[in-house]
Design brief:
Layout: H1 3-41, H2 43-54, E1 63-66, E2 71-74, H3 81-91, H4 113-116, H5 118-126, E3 131-136, H6 139-150, H7 161-173, H8 187-196, H9 209-213, E4 222-225, H10 229-240, H11 245-250, H12 268-277, H13 279-285
Parallel strand pairs: 2-3, 3-4
Antiparallel strand pairs: 1-2
């Protein structure tokens, strides 16, 4: 690659970064202005949103609001959220430079409830013609995917946010689990860690789906399944009246973790332990219990 081409690419990336930064700062300013106006013009919406924030619902930051398409999407980690967010961003005119950017508010064109304002969020929550949706996944499969993505073959050293959180929790609870730099966390050890911290999960990637879907006052009227993704996401495309070419793009399944079939990781004892951790997920989402 020539020096001129390399310099041109660097300039292009810098210009794009500046564009994203300026858009993000402008969005913050707009968000503050909207919040100020909502307090006076829509106190009911402000009370609704403020109560959700005050009660500490972490899934609020995982919601994307698309006012023009009348879409409200709750991104449950490890349930196709990268693919779905990429498709939603394309619906409103932007293809992210990389998979990670769709999850970063500074980089993504997708907006959270806080960014669009309480009034816009509340209007979509109550609008019968809006589509409020999420996607779920077999809890056995989802947990393997979370482990493969966040822990598989990673040395247990600080520097990685999730590994660091694991090490802090492991030390605080004095768990009999790997903790040294020359060790990694096996899937079985990960299951034991999740079980030990089930009352206070350390990360959204393995928080029960049932808990994430329970957002007071917000009814998700369509719950798709990762196992039937193409068929189910077609409903989102139809609702948004989006280009059907998005169906093929959405079927690409971005950010797939590298691992074998989830059944290969389970013994009967581990399957039983995971069932106990996610029993409400199995009941609510009607996934079968492994024998």
């Amino acid at each position: 690659m020539s020096t001129t081409t390399l310099s041109s690419q660097r300039t292009s990336r810098l210009e794009l970064s500046i564009k994203h930064y300026c858009r993000y700062r402008a969005g913050l300013a707009r968000s503050r202005a909207v919040k100020f106006l909502d307090r006076f013009l829509d106190p009911q919406a402000t009370r609704f949103y403020s109560l959700l924030v005050a009660n500490g619902h972490p899934q609020l930051s995982y919601i994307d609001v698309l006012p023009q398409q009348k879409i409200l999407y709750l991104a449950i980690p490890k349930c196709g959220s990268t693919t779905i967010r990429t498709a939603l961003a394309a619906m409103i005119g932007e293809i992210p430079r990389c998979c990670e950017h769709v999850h970063l508010r500074r980089q993504s064109i997708l907006k959270s409830p806080k960014q669009v304002g309480a009034s816009t969020f509340y209007r979509l929550v109550k609008d019968e013609s809006a589509l409020r949706f999420s996607f779920v996944r077999n809890p056995y499969d989802r947990l393997v995917s979370a482990w493969a993505d966040k822990f598989q073959n990673k040395p247990l050293v600080p520097g990685d946010d999730i590994v660091g959180a694991y090490l802090r929790k492991q030390q605080a609870m004095n768990l009999a689990l790997p903790k040294n730099a020359d060790q990694t966390l096996s899937f079985a050890d990960f299951v034991h860690f999740v079980a030990a911290t089930a009352d206070n999960p350390t990360d959204m990637h393995w928080r029960p789906q049932h808990d994430l879907l329970n957002l007071p006052g917000v009814s998700f009227d369509f719950i798709g399944r990762l196992e039937t993704f193409s068929r189910d996401f077609a409903r989102v495309i139809e609702h948004a009246r989006a280009d059907q070419s998005l169906a093929a793009a959405a079927d690409a399944h971005l950010n797939k973790s590298q691992r074998r079939d989830w059944r290969d990781y389970y013994t009967s004892a581990l399957a039983h332990q995971v069932y106990r951790i996610y029993e409400r997920d199995f009941d609510r989402l009607a996934y079968p219990r492994a024998v």
